[in-house]
Amino acid sequence: MGYGFFDYKYHIPDEYKTGMFTTAHIGMIVLVYLLAIFLPILLRNVQRRKITIFLRVLSIAMVVLEVTKITWESYFDITTGQGFNFGGILPLYTCSLFIYTLLFAAWTKGRVQKVALSFITTIGLLFGAIGVVYCNGLNWYPLFSFGGLYSFLFHSTMFVTGMLLLITQYHEPEWKDSLWIMIPVLLLSVFAIPANYRWSADYMLLYSGSGVPIYEEIAAAAAEKGLRFLYTLLMLITHIPLACLVIGVAKFVKWSAKKIKKKPSGD
Q1: Which of 118, 126, 137, 260 has its CA 20 to 30 A from that of 81?
Q2: Is residue 258 domain-resident?
Q3: Position 144 in a domain
Q4: How far is CA 215 from the centre of its chain?
């Protein structure tokens, strides 16, 4: 291997940055999707207390790993003369909400916990499933490197955890959850939006929709007319129908499963 596992992106030869949808990446996608479907099914009867313990351990692990990743990348940014990357490394992405909501889901009770679980089982699950396939970190790092694996496994964890909570019925999202999820989304946007305008960043995709062609076109058109704030508002509202999509699919699958169980066997 012509690079070290912990090498920084600018120290890795371009020939090893093979991007997304390589044979290895596709194989990992299939593996994660199978895991996300069948592992929760195997664990569907596990005690709620054990899932809570899992969430608590995972919540601490995710914080430690995120701090490690930020420290690791910042060290190279600073030592190579680029300085701290305020415009890209802060945990202000929508997927970063998985870390925050996981803490509340694991360590709180009542409405606060339900709001956190609502996010994890809707937007968290969906963005995790998308992030496994469209893993943007692989544009900068090989899959089998710290940077590449961290990005891939982060989204894999979002996906699998969301599926686990759904299939074990630890939390069953209702239509109203599509509104509850806006609480963490809006809270994070309070920090993300000023950061975007201060450093021309694109946290939560609320500034330029970078990396998503349709979003980029809408953002560019809005910015050209001096209406970037409308794009930002549209992107925030978009979380509601996306959450409804997941809730609708979950309800349909549950309804279908009940119909199959009730279907009388043949003579």
Answers
A1: 137
A2: no
A3: yes
A4: 18
